[in-house]
């Protein structure tokens, strides 16, 4: 049997589980007799184009490195935001990519990423099939936003959700210590999908009612309803905790954040947000006049691997491994997915789905996860999200700080 | 032997170690034969004035609650920002306080707090002595700012420092994933004392150079030097991480944060800060023109007990216990302190110091902890701070979220 080489790339915004998936792919490839060299493409598709491919075999024959990789946040191989043009618009870039793959005898291409990365997977797979390139192209999901279509949930979401929920609980404890009316507004990531903001509800327990209010991008934001909701809650108990998505919009579809920040567009045409909580803080100070603080959890919600979900990391690793077994038996042009099995206990099955059914679609919170007034989530959401945040990892630390694995550039 | 009662209060900004100190005080009081009832005064001195005292004995005879208390962030008893007037200005409030103490047969008063709380300890002790009230008043330090005079370091600082350092490391990993010039500015708490901002340097390891630059309130901030420093670092490696104190000031003594926020004053005359990083973000975008993001770690640096320092919690507990043994043998009007012993290995001794030598003084970073250019810390600071962040606690979780102990109000 002639052995072939494989390449793995990471793309889009980092998470603290994307490296667990990478570890799963590497682990399975190392164990396969069909695979010789395992390459990592540095900064996503850019590494293939520039020839910046790193051989990973030796690094990860050391099992300790594989274990460290699982608990390292962000993208070990670096990431990119690279919009592949349509083949009809620019065939040269496709020729360059496949020339590079051929040069390195690469027959398997694994791309771990979000919506935009799945667009890349779809296009490369179509090209490979059209021109009979003999390259298997597989997508593996990751995103803290949990907005990929076709999968029950995305690797990376559970860890971000756990960190958000734990942080909201801690922020609430902090707010409760003073006996004065106060509003604390916590801003959470998610442009169009409110899953992560909704996950703040997982902070609640028998002795914590925070967050009191949750505003999601799926529900039109009304500032008067918001003020009325907040006033009601202050009356009940002095310290009100509000979770708000960065992506909440008013009835005209204008981002609340836009009131304080000039909107900029990234290469994919997404608005760069930030500032919804700050805008609301100013509104509360003016209209209610009580103490108000806004807290942006910011990039820590996707980078805080020191409190990742054990369930999420285990699933992320496993979906990476399974992607390899699918690819090696000839599956191409698919994204790996989680399917939740019916029954009382949480159980998932890993399979795959045609990438054409997934790419460039965006999943948002289903209606039954949002309450009628649009200021909270439902029990159905809690049941959906709770299993994803369970368990903690034992993190390796040195000198009091988590140890991360770093690729030598 | 006639038994007496004791009261404990918590005051000032919360930390994630202040409850460990409370646990230490409670543990020692429960074990003492001289003590009958242990009261917690709700919201600091306010609870004594309003009669809102909670009996703690039963709650903490359950050892599991004592253990949970150690890992609960914020102030279990609630806090206050209450400036006690001078006795000469308002003797009535002193009479009310001591009447309440007498009514409850309280002979021991423990106050856990920062600078302002030590002012309260000093005044109450002076009054008790002057009028022979027979009440022992003891102060126990806590502050994430580490700015209390007389003690090597403050309970609470180590945990905040650990969280800041780990978060800066994670923020850096996140920033490094894109291969574009970028500046990330992390804002850290500390009005006048730069200890916590300096602690960001503890993020550095053999594979992490972040933070590249550290700006402290002790050193006059020059925006041109800042821009020149940042440009130099970008040339060396594309992604620059800057740690900046909320309290940096320019040559005229004006807060950098003031450029973007209207300054408000709290009851103690401290400026309410926030926004130094945002101001600098805007300056970098305008003057350098590269990608720039500001991250405020915000209240999580004082509330994130899920990643507290084991050393800090153990010391915080022990200083609470020792405060009781000092008080029971007749010491009054003192604040408990840590003294670092000489020698290669970190070792502390707990003792106490006259509160009059401590109250209303503020400790800032000594000169030998700051480099000549004022954009970094020295090895001496690392040696000072490193031992304080060592070790992690095994946190109790339920449903994926840390369990906190809550006082029924």
UniProtKB/TrEMBL annotation, chains A, B:
GO molecular function, one term: metal ion binding
Keyword Transcription regulation set for record: no
Positions of the catalytic residues: 145 (proton acceptor)
Subcellular location: Cytoplasm
Subunit structure: Homodimer.
Role noted for this protein: Catalyzes the phosphorylation of D-fructose 6-phosphate, the first committing step of glycolysis. Uses inorganic phosphate (PPi) as phosphoryl donor instead of ATP like common ATP-dependent phosphofructokinases (ATP-PFKs), which renders the reaction reversible, and can thus function both in glycolysis and gluconeogenesis. Consistently, PPi-PFK can replace the enzymes of both the forward (ATP-PFK) and reverse (fructose-bisphosphatase (FBPase)) reactions.
Name the record gives this protein: Pyrophosphate--fructose 6-phosphate 1-phosphotransferase
Name of the coding gene: pfp
